[in-house]
Amino acid sequence: MSSAKRRRILEIVATDSTFERTDHRGREVWLGKCLHCNTYLAISLEGEPISRATIEHIIPRVHGGTDALENLGLACARCNQGKGSRHDRHFDRDPRVRQLVDRLLERRRERWRDPDDA
């Protein structure tokens, strides 16, 4: 994984209040929750996913979503891949997909913390 991607993951961790620095299986990590299903995700202090954590673009890039931290979250690979394969291509045509995206954006706002507080 590139150092830029690890930095981006740490930026997301710093702005997600579910992530706390803790001891996990004998090593210090960031432990937080999937944006979709709330399963636990572990990230090394260097930004390397220990669990199957992935970067989630809430509004898909192909539909105008950006790399702004407000549009990014960490999700387990299963949830992220499921959203991508089942929902992202229907973003413009299916109101249920827009509802899903709105719920994820709201969840991201609820979890938001100032990165200086991490």
From TrEMBL:
Single GO MF descriptor: endonuclease activity
Taxonomy, superkingdom: Bacteria
Assigned keywords, A-Z: Endonuclease, Hydrolase, Nuclease
Domain HNH nuclease span(s) in chain numbering: 24-81
Record's protein name: HNH endonuclease
Organism for this UniProt entry: Archangium gephyra
